[in-house]
Amino acid sequence: MTVMAASGRTARPTFGSALAKAFLYSFLICLGIVVLYPLVWMALNGFKDNGQIFGDPFALPSRWTWGNYVQAWNRGVRDYLASSLLVTVASAICTVLISAWTAYGLTRTPMPGKPLIVGLVLGGLMLSPTVALIPLVRMLQAIGLYNTYWALIILYTAFRIPFSTFLIRAYMLGLPKDLDEAARIDGASEGQIFWRIILPLCQPIIISCIILHVLFAWNEYLFAMVFTNGSAVQTLPVGLTSLMSKNGTNYGVVFAAMTISALPIVLLFFAAQRYFIRGLSEGIGK
Amino acid sequence: MANSGLARMEGAALSNAAGEPAAKAGRPFRHWSSLRWVAVAVILVGWFVYYPIVDNFIVSTTDEDIFTGETTNIGLANYERLLHDPVVWVALWNNTLYALISIIFQVGGAFVLAALIEGLGSERQRRFWRAIYFIPSAISITITGLLFYFIYQPDIGLLNAGLRRIGLEQLIQPWLGSEHTAIYAIIAMSQWQGFGYSTLLFAIAIQKIPRDLYDAAVMDGAGPLRRLWSVTLPLTREMTGLMIIVTITGAFQVFNEVMVMTAGGPNNRSQVLGTWLYQQGFIQNNFGYGAAIAAVIFAVTMITGAAQLWYTRRRRIEL
Amino acid sequence: MKYSIQAAMAALAAASALGMTMGQGIAAEAVQADANAKVDYQGTLSVLTKFGAQQLAPYLVGVAQHYEKLHPGVKIELIQESDDSVKDKTKTLVASNSLPDIYFSWTGSWGGNFVRGHRAVDLTTVIGPDTEWGKTLTPAAVQAFMYNGKYYGIPLYLDAKFMGYNKQAFAKLGLSAPKTFEELLSSCETIRKSSMTPISFGNKEAWPAIHYVGQLLAYDVPQAVLEKDFNPSTAQYSDPGYVAALSQYKQLIDSCTDGGASVNGTSYSSAIQTFSNTKSAMYYQEIIEFDQSASADSALKVSDLGFFTLPAPKGAKGDVKAIEGAPEGYMISSASKNIPLAIDFMKFVTSKQNGQVLSASPYGQPSATIGGASESNMNPSVVAGLKEIASASYLMPWLDTVNPPRVASAWLSSLQALTGGSMTPEQVMEQVKQAAASSK
User: Fold this and answer.
1) What is the ipTM of this complex?
2) C276 at interface of A, judged by CB pairs closer than 8 A
3) What pTM was computed for the model?
């Protein structure tokens, strides 16, 4: 569309440009292999036993049995997956609702000290979770949330509100005011305007926010590692490392577990790719 | 903590927030009751995001024994110890290395790659390549870290076996075991994981460049390289600047991949600030000192954050 | 818990009150067990275990159910953690003042933490060497939990490090179990010529090196010096045996393994796998790992697994009959509401009968109870290993649990450096000395 395409349209295909094209494609393909092969290797190793894994790493599995995958599933991946699912879904709902609610307040209602509040909420984007780690441990221990799902749900929500609020607020600023003005004249309450008019209008950005949040929460490691330590509440990224230490000698199972954990989010990305890119595009603005 | 790509995007978002007209909804009358809309967010963010950062500075001036429950105020002793701790300097250097290499690959490399992809003929092809390169970014860095831990293994690893197969035996290394290569091996994994995300972001920025600018450049007889240099680059400069700053910020918060692949070893040579904080605070029971290390991370991210704001403000005035 | 800056920041941190409630509820003085207390078989006991691994988890579940059946008023709540997670879990529980009634502890500085914080019940009157209960347990194991002349721990099982070897591979090369360290090194040369890795060794986790060095230190440094140096306030680390042991360790790396950097890049679990796949001739392991090295499914047959104690160097100045290893056990929380019941439960856990179950496969954890091992249903190597432990003159504790955290961490990282060749033995000792000085 831009650089190369423009040249293709004006200049005649010469030997030079054909060569450049060949180079370009072989480069893209090679890079593609570098990106994909390790992932394929991971999935294939899930079918191998230790003897094969210690043999030629390029060899295909000698038999295609799901044994390792079944074992990985039963040895904890099922529970980790359930925890991840719970934490991700709950925090996604909380984050998006609270953020939309906040964005509405910031764009549609009069309130005192609004610039301060905008600065406070959006300024949270600059603060790093690593820096807050030690105080958070003490705080969560003191309020008894340590090693519970709530710890992760609350933290994921709190740390993602600034970003989601930013996205939704930017979108709401672009929505015309006539609709809610009209509704207000008709006697609708603020709550009704939010739920019935504005929220449905924000659907595209809400979807983007959810996808971005899921991508974050599903893969988060630092908080999950520090704030949970029983296998009952561990999410996938942490569970995988503990699975690795408990079944360290059975590599096939570890590879299978890694593959199972990676799969849902890759599939989600492909399914929602269009929304996702739109979300990014809107997030960057201009 | 987050996927580096996500962090990158947040940086981009932040710069926008700064530039937006802030007082759009300024109305003549004010309703205190409207605060209910923002109360939950303000409480959550204030309590779990801002307060811990303030508290971190308090913790960093103490020495606490969790077993006896005694806490003593030791002033700036932890910061003094920081200056004399050789591992802190190793970690700082490793974080810097992380930033530099990431700028080369995830900003420079990704920019060129995005331009190449956006130059392809059909939208289907462009979408295909962007998606392929993006896949590793969708996978948890914990998983990719574990995966590369295996790839780098001396005995079962893919990398050494591959080198042997193509006749480069002399390059075979215990990648994560050697003090000289461990941090580079980790950084390489991180490039593999993250470049697709930055490529996607650059691609979006390039898509927003008006087409007629390219047409005009072609009229003037500019070749592809020339157009890349004098059209694409200047018009994505804002994005590039942001990416550099956000990459630096991200590089100073690195934690997951180091923790999973080497936990800072061998001999602390692959330690970064994040893992050293964890090691001190959680393994060696030294919350106070860990908090002091956290303060260093805070300082670096604040400085780059300020640079980011300054940069976008300045750019806006110029435009 | 008062900070001067706190007041100034009170407005900013309205919620801080919640974060400041720690540091209360710790007993100001040590709580002593009352030997004559009447046990009230009512209520709930919580137990933090280290048996979270899949293979071990059922053991205490079974014992607890049995105890509950005997005493219907009692409920046992198990918090089962793995070897990896138990340290963090314990710290969390300590920091939030919610230690369970009974909790796992290592010997050495780890257990010392609970004693120092008055969080462990002084059990001298019930488990001391002359008491009824104390007499049923291996004396050295009870001794290992002694702090300031008092007994705080209930040893559950014994662990020690041995060199496992592939008998078949040794026989093929005409080798036998080496008697001296020098003989071990020369055996390695012979094995290497047969293109087998002599010793598979993975030190990515950094503690495996500590195990080699710990055993060599026991051989080269007199026991009294070692124990003096474990205590930061008396530590000197000036005995020449330290450097000697580290040099021997380096020789072993050079002659017997795939090279230092390779060792540092390999995980210990991968190393045991190499041994189990018969790709290496030896693997230095804990007695509780014997069942992992050789099993019915592995390439290494159970009958081909032999073991010997890491042989002592000629002219060693320390205790050549020492074995590196330590009992592991449990302590009782001083905050427990029902200390007599907790003691009674632990007496039940350490009974001869329950000990025999623990020693046998699939658990394979050699019980610390005298007579708690019945040879008939145990792995023969574990039986033989236990005999070695029983005849050892000194149990050398693990360097990473006996030392305070800073010293332990200095050992861990500088031994990785020694392994990889970037530090000399003298430099390692310099690091350890510095860490000990700053831990005073």
Assistant:
1) 0.86
2) yes
3) 0.86
